[in-house]
Amino acid sequence: DIVMTQSPGSLAVSLGERATINCKSSQSVLYSSNNKNYLAWYQQKSGQPPKLLIYWASTRESGVPDRFSGSGSGTDFTLTISSLQAEDVAVYYCQQYYSSPYSFGQGTKLEIK
Amino acid sequence: QVQLQESGPGLVKPSETLSLTCTVSGYSISNGYYWGWIRQPPGKGLEWIGSIYHSGSTYYNPSLKSRVTISVDTSKNQFSLKLSSVTAADTAIYYCTRGEDWFDPWGQGTLVTVSS
To answer: In what order do the strands lie in the sheet with A68-73?
Structure first.
């Protein structure tokens, strides 16, 4: 099974500043035949279900603000929020869909400093 | 706009079977996609339980496979989860969702508590 590890566990960032969340997989999630990374990012606000932000490691879902971006390849990935807004307070999860059982990181709690 | 809604008992006794149904609106399950269940213990992370295709083909998380059954009823545009022999460790918010790679959209979730 692929284990997903996120860091940090929690993060406090000032409004307008950059927030960076890391995700590491225990084995590569890059599929060589199509050169795609099988990784997604979700945002979960308090009391709500997770919301898809990014898939294929760097493709933003329709309607997601462009301050959210994903990067990385292989085993190391990053979610960046370029300029933190108050509505970005949430827990963020990465998820691999390279192989079953699909697995999530433990989450990173993002707060305002 | 695709919407999903979970329904079922919020309280299940230990050793009994948890049963939930997800009703899909805005999209016909028969048209494709995988449909799945994910759970989240209170205050904790997300665990994929399993998924089903409209044809009935399923795949489950091996950690739960011996206790899980997911089925689909295309005539009602619903799919269901059964989890047998539940314990307190199965207390969680259960979400239904669409997808076989990433998951989107998600239902609002339903809290199921296992307690006598």
So the answer is: A4-7, A19-25, A76-81, A68-73
Tens digits of residue pLDDT in A31-71: 999 999 999 999 999 999 999 999 999 999 999 999 999 99
Contacts of B106 in chain A (CB under 8 A): 49-51
CA torsion B57→B49→B6→B108, rounded to 10°? -130
Distance CA B77, CA B23 (A): 6
The identity of residue A54, as a single letter, is I
Round to whole Å and give the CA distance between A74 and B103: 21
Residue of B nearest to A62 (CA): B104
Of the candidates B59, B102, B108, the beta carbon closest to that of A49 is on B108
Report how far Cα A86 is from the mean position of its chain's Cα atoms. 18
Residue B59 is nearest to which of A95, A100, A106, comparing CB atoms? A100
> pLDDT value at position B6?
98
Contacting residues for B9 by C-beta, under 8 A, at least 6 apart: B18, B19, B112
Structure token digits, residue A24: 């590491």
Q: Are strands B92-98 and B110-114 parallel, antiparallel or unpaired?
A: antiparallel
Edge to edge, what strands does the sheet with B47-53 contain? B11-12, B110-114, B92-98, B34-40, B47-53, B58-60
Question: Are B102 and A104 in contact (CB < 8 Å)?
Answer: no
